Amino acid sequence: MITLHGTALAAEGGTDGFHAPSISDFFPPAIWFEGTIFEITRMQLVQFLAAAVLITVLVVSARRVKLVPGRFQNVLEMILDFVRVQIVESTMGKERGKPYLKLITTIFLTILAFNLTGIIPGINLAGTSRIGVPLLMALWVMVAYWAAGVRKHGLWGYLKANMFPPGVPVFVYPILAPIELLQLLIIRPGSLIIRLLANMVAGHIMLALCFLATHYLLLSAGGALAATSAITLFGAIALTLFEVFVAALQAFIFALLAAVYINMSLEEEH
Amino acid sequence: MDITNIAELTGNINTIGYGIAAIGPAIGLGMLIGKTLEGIARQPEVANQLRSTMFIGLAFVEILALLGFVAALIIS
User: Helix A71-82 to helix A42-63 angle, to the nearest 10 degrees?
Assistant: First the structure.
């Protein structure tokens, strides 16, 4: 059911031609419930798997929490501490950040788990490389910063503080106000979505290209060209390690920007 | 007089477009990270603060290159 990406693609068209990876990789054929809105494809299975693993790991380790942590608990505590200190407290401060700690931690861990499915051999499809997951997360962040701002300043106060910042000449307001409103409603969540999505799509295409090139050069090209498959294989391994870094970095940036946006809504009026 | 094609281009030039789109963000990232390193070298005690500010800036620069990538993919 879940096959290695390279072999699945190569099997479709035989082994004689080279198949470049494309956008259609992210829309695999349906497995169950084809044609309904509950359609299950390989992408959904990957997402279910990542969610199940994340929930299992967190629930099991939370049940067995000890005062003197073992190695496994130590790693988890390090991650949670990293989110608390490096992301939330460094941008929002201790007092202000406390109510939003759960939101930021959930976003960070979910995106990290969904990103990491992109580099696990045999799965090789990031759960965040379709628009659904990034869209949901970005909308959640948008609701959170609107709610934070409206609760603190009231709706008009929040809009006024953002659209008509003090200290700007009056004749600039007609230009500035729509841009700021657009920023609040579309540009911030949109850029969050595109940043995560495009990174994962680009990473998958690079990896798939390296694996498919190795497959093609080794099996079909023949002669001296087969030796060059060692280079692409090495490139694939190096890119896999790079993608681990990118997966963590994108989760970090998404969570950091969420904290920054919420903090902007909570700032005092000048 | 016959007009003959001596060179022909097939396919699309999205990849070249993406290459051009990546120039600006590349310069931006270079300046951003270079300046942060400079700041950390001068004042190592504010390294943490500089680093997290750098990541926020990095996110805004990176989105430009990614928009180029998305445009290259969806416009064909």
Answer: 110
How far out from the chain centre does Cα A169 lie? Answer: 40
Alpha carbon distance A250, A134 (integer Å): 11
State whether B70 and A194 contact (CB < 8 Å).
yes
Give the structural domain span for A181: 2-266
The pTM of the full predicted model, rounded to 2 decimals, is: 0.86
**Could you read off the pLDDT tens digit of each residue along chain A, which spans 270 residues?**
334 444 444 444 444 567 778 788 888 888 877 777 778 888 889 999 999 999 999 999 888 888 888 888 899 999 999 999 989 998 888 898 899 999 999 999 999 999 999 888 888 888 898 899 999 999 999 999 999 999 999 999 899 888 888 888 888 889 999 999 999 999 999 999 999 999 999 999 899 889 888 888 888 877 788 888 888 899 999 999 999 999 999 999 999 999 999 999 998 765
Among A104, A115, A253, A202, which residue's Cα sits nearest to residue B66?
Answer: A202
Q: How many CA atoms lie within 13 A of A186 on its CB side?
A: 5
Question: Which chain A residue lies closest to B68 (C-alpha atoms)?
Answer: A198
The count of CB pairs under 8 A between chains A and B is 37
Place of tokens 């005062």: A67
A195/B66 touch (CB, cutoff 8 Å), yes or no:
yes
Tokens representing residue A213 in the block: 């090139």
**Residues of chain B contacting A253 with CB distance shorter than 8 Å:** 55, 58-59
Q: Give the phi and the psi of residue A32 in degrees, each rounded to 5.
A: -125, 160
Number of domains in chain A: 1
Q: Do A256 and B59 count as a contact with CB atoms less than 8 A apart? A: yes
Q: Which one of A86, A198, A260 has the shortest CB-CB distance to B69?
A: A198
Residue A30: which H helix or E strand, with range? Answer: strand A30-32
Which residues of chain B neighbour A21 with C-beta distances below 8 Å? Answer: none
Q: Torsions phi, psi of A31, nearest 5?
A: -105, -50
